[in-house]
Amino acid sequence: MNKFNRILLKLSGESLMGEQGYGIDVNRLHDYAVQIKEAHDTGVQIAIVIGGGNIFRGLSGVGKGFDRVKGDQMGMCATVINSLALSSALGALGVKAHVLTAIRMEPIGEFYNKWRAIQYLNQGDVVICACGTGSPYFTTDTGSSLRGIEIEADVMLKGTRVDGIYTADPEKDPSARKFDDISYDEIYRRGLKVMDLTATAMCKENGLPIYVFNMDKYGNLARVLRGEPIGTYVHR
Prior knowledge:
alpha/beta; 8 helices; globular
């Protein structure tokens, strides 16, 4: 039995690179799609936001001379590419998925609105929300928080390449300690890099819990939905 009925799944664009170092690794994409299908088959309603860091990240473009607004817009386009790829992978597995974009770009995707997204979720389809918030200066983490709140998700599941939140970067500090659960306020106090502060503040103010886990380990999404304590739970 699932612990949650409706989820917002945030996926890292960088994780889609797999071992390639750039672009979309078809094996990683397939693994994600299969895990999502398995979750979908249990009856959970799934909305997804994917980052674009495997293709272009707006802030990195600023350091190379790009205008910040143009750079962020390029990053939004990168999320559309990833969303289309995931939609195609899910379709190949027999899962109906809709790409909804925060910027009008029909026929590539439908223009996002809350009620259309919820309609699709209620009829058993997967919804993939692209373009972040549709505005520059906001990350896809903030886009995930916004969409999760709008669609009235039970939780935001943040799939990363680490198995939770630590006192420090576990890839750099072997003494880093993992949290099983943590409050939004403690994240602020410790200055932990879970999500950007805007995204975390939105989740706190609207009561949307966050669960951080390792999505790159096959089967972990199903384990999270069953309530197994494999990541870090963020709450009030």
